[in-house]
Amino acid sequence: MPAGPDPRRPTLRRLLGALALALPLAAAPQARACDIALMLAVDVSGSVDSYEYALQLQGIANALRDEDVRAALLQGQVALGVMQWSGAMEQTVSVPFTRLTEPAEVAQLAARIGTLPRAHSGGNTAVGEAIAVAVEQFGQVRDCAHWVIDISGDGDENEGYTLGTERRTAYARGITINGLAIEAAGTGQPITNFYRRNVVTPGGFVITAHQHSDFARAMRQKMLRELIPPMALAPAPRDTQLASLSGFLHLHPR
């Protein structure tokens, strides 16, 4: 009597079934990795009135609606967040990191940011504490290749006085800090100089807005510089930055 089929041997039907399952997986495009996680930290301290607050939020929203910025956000699969900061213990993450993969998502985020309620008012300016809270958010975006904090503001630190420590901590964790300094009319560039000397990390940069009315233009310029190579100054990989940290600490002992 002839022997029956070996149950351990794969049948043609099984092989064809496995192939049918595998083909869609093989044909599916690979998801692009997140290039940049960008946290926008907006000054809402007492020096910013309600009109100037609205200019800042609309400036961010309009930057996101810009064709070149939108294309760069989608190309880099950027994760974007927004926080508001003022004095000590006055920091609020208004928009947690949001992945941007489709034009509709960028449009929705722009509309959301443009109507964000103000989280704080009348406070002092604790730049260091703003950086500390921003740093904590990057645990959500560990897969993003570059981590960037943007601090925008119109004054220097007058509360908390942790800026030196928090800047060094951010740099040690592989986070680049850039600045958008908002200058008052006819005052020169004292805020720009403060940001250059005390806020940005090595490899970071400062863009100057000439009053709050210039915020939208400065925000667009800054985001394009961050997002579009070769304009972007990409930070060093996180596993190599510690090698240069000792020199940074020596030059910036605060």
Q: In CATH's first tier, which class applies?
A: Alpha Beta
Fraction of residues in helix: 40-55%
Low-confidence stretches: 23-30, 233-237, 239-244
- Shape verdict: globular
C-alpha termini separation: 91 Å
Proportion of residues in extended strands: 15-25%
CATH architectural label: 3-Layer(aba) Sandwich
Q: What is the N-to-C succession of helices and strands?
A: HEHHEEHHEHEHEHH
Report the strand count.
6
Strand order of the largest sheet: 3-2-1-4-5-6
Could you give me the name of the CATH homologous superfamily? von Willebrand factor, type A domain
Class of secondary structure makeup: alpha/beta
Question: Helical segment tally?
Answer: 9
Under CATH, the topology is which?
A: Rossmann fold
Number of domains: 1
How would you state the average pLDDT, rounded?
Answer: 86
What is the makeup of the main sheet?
Answer: 6 strands, mixed
Computed Rg: 23 Å
Signal peptide: 1-33
Protein name: VWFA domain-containing protein
Organism: Pararhodobacter aggregans
Keywords: Signal
Description of the molecule:
Residues 1-33 form the signal peptide. Pfam families: DUF1194. Residues 37-227 form the VWFA domain. With 254 residues, the protein is α/β, with parallel strands linked by helices. The protein has one domain: von Willebrand factor, type A domain (Rossmann fold, 3-Layer(aba) Sandwich), CATH 3.40.50. It has nine helices and six strands. The protein has a six-stranded mixed sheet with strand order 3-2-1-4-5-6, with helices on both faces. Residues 23-30, 233-237 and 239-244 have low confidence and may be disordered.
